Amino acid sequence: MKILTANRLTDGEAVWFAADGSWAETIDVAETVGDKAGEARLEAIGKAAYDNNEVVDVNLIDVSVVNGAIQPLRLREVIRAAGPSNRLDLGKQARPAAGAA
Amino acid sequence: MYRYDEFDHDFVKARVADFSDQVERRLAGEITEDQFRPLRLMNGVYLQLHAYMLRIAVPYGTLSSKQMRMLGHIARKYDKGYGHFTTRQNIQFNWPALSDIPAILADLASVEMHAIQTSGNCIRNVTADHFAGAAADEVADPRPYAEILRQWSSVHPEFSYLPRKFKIAVTGAERDRAAIQTHDIGLHLKKNEKGELGFAVYIGGGQGRTPMVAKKIRDFLPEQHLLSYTTAILRVYNLHGRRDNKYKARIKILVHETGVDEIIRQVEHEWQALKDGELKLPEADVAAIQSYFAPPALTARPEGDEAIKLARLDSKSFGDWVDQNVFTHGNPDYAAVTISLKGIGEVPGDATDSQMHAVADIAEKFGFDEIRVSHEQNLILPHVARADLKAVYDALVAIDLATANSNLISDIIACPGLDYCALANARSIPVAQEISRRFASLERQRDIGELKLKISGCINACGHHHVGHIGILGVEKKGAELYQVTLGGSADEHTTVGEIIGRGFGPEEITDAIETIVETYLGIRLDRSEKFLDAYRRVGPAPFKEALYASEAKAA
């Protein structure tokens, strides 16, 4: 499975393309695709967003879905999705979980 | 300290205005990322995993209290309350928004700082011995020459698009604390038999995927020829350095592939045409720059020895700190102090905004307003009266920066690694933290003695692992982190590249492996005076291999 990720142009925030068509700040709402057609569609979306100066460093990344949660296969992407592993008080991992409020 | 003249002020202000306009146009979508990337890199702006990163130049590692306060202000206002001091004596902020960077650069310009040439294929921040101008063993302060090189290399039209980045370091002492032999050009300031100043010139050193120790190409270059000779080297490199392969583009590869004798011939040939031209440094200009670096007026403070003696009786931890973190100054009443940014379990090189402000206050009160950043990712107060050491120590204790571990195993150089860096393959910081915690006991660290441990999270070697007495290189293997260990590297006047000891270790094994190496050393050293590096050079890798891998060899 793959998802589409990038960094937002204005502040560099790591973002993922979500099923609702937005660039989300958390990975859990990313749209997953499981076939070449889906990948091609996400790639086209990424290129359009890059050309439209919304995001930079656009990449399709490999993930698996475990108990409904999206988990990147590479540690690099795990850290991008969470924040620095040595500073749990920083990055997305430090934010209140969605719905927790 | 060097103070900007009118030209410097105008130059930096103009650059801030240029880049602010470029950021504005980028955010408005008027220029593309492909157009913008080289512009942002020339101004120190990278894109990392979580955010943009801004690398700010600290020329030859020298900062005033006012400048340090500004760094603290930037950390607090625009970032997340901390900054990371680097092995190029610079500072990086890990979380700035692109839209805030024009304001940050304007703030920096107000204290004579900038981020120009902290990236890109140009001449980067010139680094220097962090004890320059203070060390008892120095011939002369090398920083005036670093400043001359800075002025000459800033937006140098011929050398702004080199085949690859270019790093210069200078030292003014026989004991090399600036790692000059790991640089593209290393300059050792010294005196000839007539007492004149000049440089031993080294070229072609470097780390990365092809580590090389620099070759000495001239034993004594009279100081007035600094720029003409450097220009000759850069011209030969700019003309013949490879542009077809990024990994073979540094001058070290050119020197290696061409041969030292032929490189010397080419440089000398080029230099003959330059040496008596406009690049020859007028004595008056050198003297004018030197005057900026005149040592502060160090009044006699002979009460220091007595004060230290009494304070030692009162506090063992103060005594330990004096023994470990205080360095001999040229003036016997004074000392240079290493402020360790390597507290046990802390992130090497990180300082909080409050710590930056507090260090600025301490430097203002006790240190003639001067602070240095060392390439080993610590801060230095170069001129402190020995009589004031206890007060400085107490002030550092209050901000958790009094760890007495300078040059010990927990004084680790570590790159940001995969926790921040887009190029990294493995994490560095958590490895450094765990090793630091394992060896937390200061008594144990002091028994082990001088041991330079350096960690990089990828082959680019920002963490200088090749020249660590113990080096750790993080790689990615089958999707997991793996740490390769090298032994026997050093970055001093006898620079060597460490040797890979054997198969790598997983994240959960690496600290044990380091402990095994240290225990092996303790078992083989002749006595406490034989340092790790000396013992390794005497016995070679065999006992360390045996200790690390013998059991699996038997099992197989």
From TrEMBL, chain A:
InterPro entries from the UniProt entry: DUF2849 (IPR021270)
Recorded superkingdom: Bacteria
Species whose genome carries this gene: Aminobacter anthyllidis
The protein's name: DUF2849 domain-containing protein
Pfam families the record matches: DUF2849 (PF11011)
From TrEMBL, chain B:
UniProt-recorded Gene Ontology molecular function terms: 4 iron, 4 sulfur cluster binding; heme binding; metal ion binding; oxidoreductase activity
Pfam families documented for this protein: NIR_SIR, NIR_SIR_ferr
Record InterPro entries: NIR_SIR_4Fe-4S, NiRdtase/SiRdtase_haem-b_fer, Nit/Sulf_reduc_fer-like_dom_sf, NO2/SO3_Rdtase_4Fe4S_dom, NO2/SO3_Rdtase_4Fe4S_sf
Record keywords: 4Fe-4S, Heme, Iron, Iron-sulfur, Metal-binding, Oxidoreductase
Nitrite/Sulfite reductase ferredoxin-like domain: residues covered: 52-110, 336-398
Start and end residues of each Nitrite/sulphite reductase 4Fe-4S domain: 119-272, 411-548
Protein name: Nitrite/sulfite reductase
Organism: Aminobacter anthyllidis
